[in-house]
Specification:
tRNA_psdUridine_synth_TruB; PsdUridine_synth_cat_dom_sf; alpha+beta; about 25% helix; Alpha-Beta Plaits; tRNA processing; EC 5.4.99.25; disordered C terminus; two-stranded antiparallel ribbon
Length: about 140
């Protein structure tokens, strides 16, 4: 069971809790809800810093996990860096397009490959790779 953080995308009356908090409105914590953790391992420990590898289901908040670890240790804990390495069928290693390949053609190819991982009509859509025709813009100085 996990209590979601107040600064989250969860909504109250159609607005994100984080937006309400930023406006200074009182926000009550949402009740604890079931979450799934498939694996949790300590990768590195150099006090006071540690690195975790977490494989979890949707709706799991790593920030809440780290906060709970701090409470259990009678101290506080926060995240210094968070990297999502997998989301659904996509992995950072297999599907991230490296900066040196950021061209319109490479991005379109990458998107087509990713779309093929989805079932149904969504995967049959093609992406337009041509750049829009340049439009001449003139401005008269007054």
């Amino acid at each position: 069971m996990q209590v979601p953080p107040l600064y989250s995308a969860l909504k109250k009356d159609g607005e994100r809790l984080s937006t309400l908090m930023k406006r200074g409105e009182a926000v009550e914590a949402k009740p604890a809800r079931p979450v799934r953790v498939y694996s949790l391992s300590l990768q590195q420990f150099q006090p006071p810093l540690f690195t975790l590898d977490v494989e979890c289901g949707g709706g799991f908040y790593v920030r809440s996990l780290v906060s709970d670890i701090g409470k259990e240790l009678s101290t506080c804990a926060s995240i210094q860096e968070l990297t999502r390495t997998k989301h659904g069928p996509f992995t950072l290693e297999e599907h991230a397009l490296h900066e040196d390949r950021w061209t319109i053609d490479e991005i379109a190819r990458s998107l087509e490959h990713c779309m093929s991982l989805f079932p149904g009509e969504q995967s049959h859509k093609k992406f337009k790779t041509e750049l829009p025709a340049e439009t001449a813009v003139s401005r008269e100085d007054k």
